[in-house]
């Protein structure tokens, strides 16, 4: 199931939705399959279950297609089935940003960052989304003192890895807003 998830996520990143849909249909065949991780008596994190991964992909696709109502319904289902997973806060922040609910974005991202324990499931574009949505929301609300504090901290943190293209995009955006 994890391979199907990664393939589906790649299809979403490059925008090939027909290929994504075909992969998703194949993924459904794994939904009720038993766990194949051994030993079986050790409890596993539900973030690798087919149901979790399928909901994650479905939410992601609807967000990319700006189908926010469907995204919200799926997010509610996700949060009901997996209340201990923090990824719901990530998706809630993206939906809130698209709806221009900037106070909610800030609150949700701060909650997300303070509760995150899962170390595997965020790629560099998702981290860029989190950080740019957070700084943009603070800026758009006009809280310049907080914006300067956060943006300077992010610039300081990203200076050590100046070759990373994700950091470069974020730094350029922050520097542009600082000039503005």
Question: What does this entry look like structurally?
Answer:
The protein is mainly α and 180 residues long. 71% of the residues lie in helices and 0% in strands. It is built from nine helices and no strands. Helix 4 (68-81) runs antiparallel to helix 5 (87-98). The protein starts with a helix and ends with a helix.
Task: Give a quick precis of the structure.
The chain has 180 residues and is mainly α.
Could you give the distance between the termini? 46 Å
Total beta strands: 0
The class by helix and strand makeup works out as mainly alpha
| Helix segment tally | 9
Q: Beta-sheet strand percentage?
A: under 5%
Major sheet size, sense and barrel closure:
none
Helix content: over 70%
The averaged pLDDT comes out at 86
* Unreliable residue stretches: none
Secondary-structure element order, N to C = HHHHHHHHH
Provide the gyration radius in Å: 18 Å
| Overall 3D shape | elongated
């Amino acid at each position: 199931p994890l391979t199907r998830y990664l393939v589906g996520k790649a299809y979403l990143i490059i925008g090939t939705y027909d290929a994504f849909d075909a992969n998703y249909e194949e993924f459904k065949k794994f939904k009720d399959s038993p766990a194949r991780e051994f030993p079986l008596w050790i409890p596993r994190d539900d973030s690798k279950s087919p149901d979790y991964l399928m909901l994650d992909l479905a939410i992601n696709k609807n967000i990319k297609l700006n189908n926010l109502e469907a995204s919200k319904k799926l997010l509610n289902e996700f949060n009901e089935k997996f209340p201990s997973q923090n990824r719901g806060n990530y998706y809630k922040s993206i939906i809130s940003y698209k709806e221009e609910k900037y106070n909610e974005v800030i609150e949700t991202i701060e909650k997300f960052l303070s509760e995150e324990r899962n170390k595997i499931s965020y790629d560099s574009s998702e981290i860029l989304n989190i950080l740019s949505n957070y700084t943009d929301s603070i800026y758009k609300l006009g809280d310049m003192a907080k914006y300067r504090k956060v943006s300077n901290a992010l610039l300081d943190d990203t200076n050590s890895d100046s070759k990373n293209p994700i950091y470069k995009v974020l730094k350029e955006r922050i520097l542009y807003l600082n000039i503005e």
